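Predict structure. Chain length: 64.
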Amino acid sequence: MGLGDKIKNKAQEVSGKIKESVGDATDNEKLQTEGVKDQAAAATKQAGENIKDAAKDVKDDLTK
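Prediction complete.
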């Protein structure tokens, strides 16, 4: 996974946590839900990138 992708995913995760916290603090259910969605999206992207990395590692090991 590229460093840029890691940074984008982490930024989306942090942004989601902030939105969720602000939504909790202000009783804004929409903002809270949006934050949870952002965190889930970031986690899904991260999992996909981890799978790509694992597949690349396996390929590299097989070609040695």
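Summary: The radius of gyration is 16 Å.
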